[in-house]
Amino acid sequence: MTFINTTFKALPYRSCISTDAVRMHPAAATMTIADNLASAHDIPDSADPLMALLHEGGLRPLRLGGRTLLPIVQGGMGVGVSAHRLAGSVAALGAMGTISSVDLRRHHPDLMERTRDLAPGAAATSRAKQDINAANLEALAREIRAARRCAGGRGLLAINVMRAVGEYAPSVTRALECGIDAVVVGAGLPLDLPELAQDHPDALLVPILSDARGVQLLVRKWERKRRLPDAIVIEHPRLAGGHLGAGKIADLADPRFDFENVIPQSLAFLRAAGIEKEIPLIAAGGIRRFEDIARVQALGAAAVQLGTPFAVTQECDAHPEFKRMLAEARDEDLVEFTSVAGLPARAVATRWLKGYLKAEAKLQGVAHVKPRCTLAFDCLAQCGLRDGLATWGQFCIDTQLAAALRGDVKRGLFFRGVGALPFGDQVRSVRELLARLLTRYEDSAPTPGVTAA
Ligand SMILES: Cc1cc2nc3c(=O)[nH]c(=O)nc-3n(C[C@H](O)[C@H](O)[C@H](O)COP(=O)(O)O)c2cc1C
Description:
TIM Barrel; binds flavin mononucleotide; eight-stranded parallel beta sheet; single chain; disordered N terminus
């Protein structure tokens, strides 16, 4: 590949290691702090060289909440994959960084210790749930504080809360009280978000949707509440990692999700409603290089959101083995399945996932309502395992995602999006990733599959 643009220079750095948010699960804490120091987790003092790259490449900036940002959003990734270090690092470079709200206590050994013995015994259940949820809200506040320090007022900081999680409303409220810039909600229609955020009129509200019908429905419902989304993430279920916005696996490749369809259709609706300029669209799923960004901007998108490429950066808050698993996986190693949240999901077909899928029909055949959640805190509002929903997944998602976070390649569930990553199987810094995405290469074409199937 020929590197046309050579203006990106080394910058002065400052470190961004939090003092109050100790990293990771206790089992991995030693490694992670060492990893923090070894990778130096460096952040440039100025985001300007990236803006210069943006202008040279001819991509448009993202204008959001009165700010001019790089048109690149780091998507929220649970459990704990995008916490303060990743989100703060991305924001510090002038883009939008997103903390995932789910079970953040796993990054705080003191909070894990405090909740460790809350075994889900019948009498202890409601108390255990209350204490674990309180610990998670405390962790959320700590992570937001640390990310804000890290970002130093640059870029934009968001919290991602899945609509499907039990603590959706308290998490949104706590994040807003902590002064988060934006709330991003996926995995369900956040029709009640305007009410939840009514005391915080300056906070940006960003739903994640997948087709033009969803955009129309949500905007119409929000309009009645006198609120419009500040941006909308359009996530392609055939390409993205994690939970996917389609009803079932068979629908993932439906052309109505293709960026070529959903972006112009959504813009046409917004234009007809007279609000096109006010709501930037952010395309997510399988975005891997400059040409992918140029292509969706040509369709009318304002920006892109990436998950997997940010998950394999040095600054990502997960264990190095988590990053290795994602970086080394190829498209043929990925599998789609139905999660315990009842939604299709895409992940690396690890030993655990292959074994689970082999046993899935049997497990679904004996699905029944359990007296309590495996981990006592009911992470999901509706859970296929706990609630005995026979067509939904039958595993404890928090247990599996937490295993992935701490690098347990045997037991973990490793969500991943489709497509070869910008640096192949290498783990690089956020700065390098952003620079690469903003740079046009002479002989590269858009990532196959990013546009129509
Ligand atoms: C490991 C991982 C965890 C994710 N967790 C969440 C999540 O908690 N909430 C959410 O809305 N999206 C989640 N996503 C989706 C990302 O935010 C992003 O939209 C998506 O990954 C984009 O596709 P890409 O991975 O192909 O870039 C996750 C994705 C990955 C890879």
